[in-house]
Design a protein that fits this description.
CATH topology: Rossmann fold
CATH class: Alpha Beta
Helix content: 40-55%
Structural class: alpha/beta
Strand order of the largest sheet: 2-1-3-4-5
Number of strands: 5
Largest sheet: 5 strands, parallel
Shape: globular
Length: 197
């Protein structure tokens, strides 16, 4: 592989992923509004879940929501099935990431959460998947496969989930009127609080 090949492949992939993010903006609809209102109105816990790459994006969303004043935590679905799901109570909200919506441990965790009174929001490619079917609100996050590494690796789809999660976080922060000055108290480490005027 030549130096020119390396740059060409890299630029093509980055451009494809950028196009995917722009395309996703046109895919969100009234389901996004419903999801944003569910999160903003939740006065109990928000558990964000997913496994593999989806789990990484779930952790990211949980962190961002918590940073903006939402009592959000990441819960691995498999670990949740070994007892921690007992912490789920009426009024909680589960946000589940799953590309195919067919992960057995994730779907079992969401089923248990629903039985215990939690609402379920899904971010998935397939609305007719088991996860999509059991959710109170299912957001279809299905970017063009051009953003996936070699058409398979979850590159563009991860970024698309991240972008939708970012938009949800910003809107929920504003709906809940979270004051950025609180960031000075709750984010004393790092430079983030220094940016607040």
């Amino acid at each position: 592989m030549t130096n020119e090949d390396i740059l060409e492949i890299a630029k093509k992939q980055i451009r494809a992923e950028g196009e995917v993010i722009i395309d996703i903006a046109d895919q969100i609809d009234e389901k996004f509004i419903q999801a944003a209102r569910l999160i903003a109105d939740c006065r109990s816990k928000v558990l964000v879940t997913g496994a593999g790459t989806s789990g990484t994006m779930a952790r990211r969303l949980a962190h961002l929501l918590a940073t903006c004043g939402v009592p959000a935590f990441y819960q691995h679905p498999g670990e949740g099935l070994h007892g921690p799901s007992a912490a789920i109570t009426q009024g909680d909200l589960v946000i589940a990431f799953s590309k195919a919506g067919k992960s057995q441990e994730l779907n079992t965790f969401c089923r248990v959460a629903g039985e215990r009174g939690a609402k379920i929001i899904a971010l998935t490619w397939y609305l007719d998947s088991p996860l999509g079917q059991m959710s109170d609100v299912a957001l279809q996050i299905r970017p063009d496969e051009k953003g996936e590494g070699e058409g398979v690796l979850p590159f563009g789809s991860s970024l698309a989930n991240g972008a939708v999660g970012d938009a949800l976080t910003l809107i929920v922060k504003q709906m809940r009127e979270f004051d950025l000055r609180t960031l000075v108290q709750t984010h004393p480490s790092g430079a983030t609080s220094e940016l607040v005027k």
